[in-house]
Automatic annotation (TrEMBL):
<dbReference type="InterPro" id="IPR001647">
    <property type="entry name" value="HTH_TetR"/>
</dbReference>
<dbReference type="Pfam" id="PF17926">
    <property type="entry name" value="TetR_C_21"/>
</dbReference>
<dbReference type="InterPro" id="IPR050109">
    <property type="entry name" value="HTH-type_TetR-like_transc_reg"/>
</dbReference>
<protein>
    <submittedName>
        <fullName>TetR/AcrR family transcriptional regulator</fullName>
    </submittedName>
</protein>
<dbReference type="InterPro" id="IPR041467">
    <property type="entry name" value="Sco4008_C"/>
</dbReference>
<feature type="domain" description="HTH tetR-type">
    <location>
        <begin position="6"/>
        <end position="66"/>
    </location>
</feature>
<feature type="DNA-binding region" description="H-T-H motif">
    <location>
        <begin position="29"/>
        <end position="48"/>
    </location>
</feature>
<keyword id="KW-0238">DNA-binding</keyword>
<dbReference type="Pfam" id="PF00440">
    <property type="entry name" value="TetR_N"/>
</dbReference>
<dbReference type="InterPro" id="IPR036271">
    <property type="entry name" value="Tet_transcr_reg_TetR-rel_C_sf"/>
</dbReference>
<dbReference type="InterPro" id="IPR009057">
    <property type="entry name" value="Homeodomain-like_sf"/>
</dbReference>
């Protein structure tokens, strides 16, 4: 019976995603990933190299997934309702992505894993804001890269620090996520200095 390499890699990556998002790179061991995936740790080293390289592959995969799931725009025009609403929904449904990014910042002290490839994910977002500014649809009093960063933060931070969102909510026991989502979209529009994009 032939060994299914891709299925094995997928099991390793799923286990590593859970381990890294729960414990961070420092708290995760290849032994734990091996146990969780049911794969021999030597095979993990063979496929992915060391723990840092495995973390980089996991994080890159998650960034690729969100980039495909929530593109900036299908038309080249920044659709704030679809983009910010999509980011808000994605982060709420996949809180592990923000955890991975936070763990990376805490663990590697500003060192960016696979920076050149990862810049591509963010370049499209900055470009969409820049295009909106050039077309007069988005205010120009703040640089495009800063606005793109703020949009990501506005949509995703709720899932990164749910305890703070809970404490600051006017009605923490009855949070209406549809209302919160709508408010986040409106705040993004206000941030961009626009009413209807």
């Amino acid at each position: 019976m032939a060994w299914d390499t891709e299925k094995t890699k997928s099991r390793i990556l799923e286990a590593a995603l859970l381990e890294f998002s729960e414990k961070g790179p420092a708290g995760t061991t290849i032994d734990n990933v091996a146990r969780r995936s049911g794969v021999n740790k030597e095979r993990i080293y063979h496929y992915f190299g060391n723990k840092q390289a495995l973390f980089g592959v996991v994080l890159d995969g998650e960034l690729r997934t969100i980039s495909e799931a929530v593109p900036v725009s299908a038309t080249g025009r920044l659709d704030i309702d679809a983009y910010i609403g999509g980011l808000f929904d994605y982060h709420r449904e996949h809180p592990h992505l923000n955890r991975l990014v936070l763990w990376e910042g805490l663990t590697y002290n500003g060192t960016i894993l696979d920076e050149s490839r990862r810049r591509e994910y963010y370049a499209a977002r900055v470009s969409a804001v820049c295009s909106g500014q050039e077309n007069g649809e988005i205010a120009t009093n703040v640089d495009a890269d800063v606005l793109a960063f703020l949009l990501l933060s506005l949509a995703g931070w709720w899932s990164s620090v749910p305890q703070i969102a809970h404490m600051m909510s006017a009605d923490p026991d009855g949070v209406d996520l549809d209302t919160r989502r709508r408010n986040v979209i409106e705040a993004a529009k206000n941030l961009l200095g626009q009413c209807d994009v």
